[in-house]
Design goal:
transferase, 5 helices, three-stranded antiparallel beta sheet, single chain, GNAT_dom, acyltransferase activity, transferring groups other than amino-acyl groups, alpha+beta, acyltransferase, about 160 residues, Putative acyltransferase
Length: about 160
Amino acid sequence: MRNADFCMELKQAECPVKVAEIVEKAIRAVYPHYYPSGAVQFFLDLHNEQRIREAVAREDIYFAAVQGEIVGTGSIRGNEICRLFILPEYQAKGYGSRLMDLLEDMVFQQYQAVHIDASFPAESMYLKRGYRIKTYEKIKTGGGDYLCYHTMEKVAGGKG
């Protein structure tokens, strides 16, 4: 195990309000350093409580917990890992990598490849994990700002 100093467990996220709180807190703390305000607002709207309630029917949404403390959240939709966020106070401690380990294992049980939409803050982690950039995407957001990101893929065995 890559992060042997802690044991992370996944719990089915049954509270969209808590998922939305985690996501909003992480976006507000990190994304303004990477994106213009219109793109940050786009992310906040994309992952608001109502959108998460709607996603429950299409995604398996999880809380990541360490010693009973929720440190983040992540979702699986088919062979895509989405909405992966670690609370700011738990970032840079290996929790995001461990959460990816667990989610990837689940996806690879059914699929030969994992797909993600990579935000700028997380892209370097995905590259280190063996993901390869597939496409570059750009969405015009409020105030004339743009949200730019890459779609990425990792095949079973980690060769991208």
